[in-house]
Amino acid sequence: MTAFSLPQIANDWALFLDVDGTLLDLGPRPDAVTVPHGLREALADLQRRLDGALALVSGRAISNLDRLFAPLRLPAAGQHGAELRPRADAAVTAAAGSVSLDILAERLGPFAASHPGVVVEAKGLSVALHCRQAPEALGAAGKLVRSLVAETHGALDLLPAHFGFDIKLRRASKGRAVAAFLAEAPFHGRVPVFAGDDATDEGAFAAVLERGGHAIRVGGRGASFARLRVGKPAELRRWLGVRVPAEGVSP
Questions:
Q1: Reduced to 3 states, what is the DSSP secondary structure of residue 224?
Q2: What is the pTM of this model?
Q3: Within a domain: residue 247?
Q4: Distances (CA, A) of 11 to 15, 49, 192
Q5: pLDDT tens, 155-186?
Q6: Which terminus of the chain has fewer CB atoms gathered within 10 Å of its CB, N or C?
Q7: What is the DSSP pairing of strand 76-78 with strand 83-85?
Q8: Nearest Cα to Cα of residue 74 among 15, 24, 32
Q9: Which range of residues forms the domain containing residue 221?
């Protein structure tokens, strides 16, 4: 299915967008991604068209999202819903009872040090272990993170990601973040639409479908709540209105 199979964006939508693997092509490391030419402008145009009802919902921290998309600043949920900023000019709030996971990140450090290419991404309220540059370490990494999460007796959730794992607070989720957005203006009363690319987005897919919206999966062949699919981020970007640079023009 191509991006042109997706429904046309309607003015009464509330649009929620994952970032890595959805808006942006995955990089070998979290700090090695680029924002393609024209994406910021397309998102700003959509935000105006939807009267502000466009938000980023990501595993990244909101401060990281702001750096990536600067000077554009959008409503956002970060760290799988552990952070929320309902409006671009609002302060970032943390999920109730949120605690730092920096100690968990420290415990993953020796594993990364002994497996070249493995990266620990400590985000404060969540932790990611990336094996994109060391796929042979994925099995051992999975065994380690499952044991560490089990030690928390249900306080944390483990989410599989692209060649890696995300560890987050159980009380925080992208689905709850979407629900929080939809309870307030300018999102309230609109048709919710979420675009994401992997298992970390399934809760948000379910949240929008329960409210009569649309779920869009970018890539992936596995089971998903999403029934609308595109093959890769570039197709989704075209659907969002990003113009491909003319041949010979640098992005």
A1: coil
A2: 0.86
A3: no
A4: 10, 7, 11
A5: 888 988 888 898 988 888 999 999 999 999 99
A6: C
A7: antiparallel
A8: 15
A9: 3-96+172-240
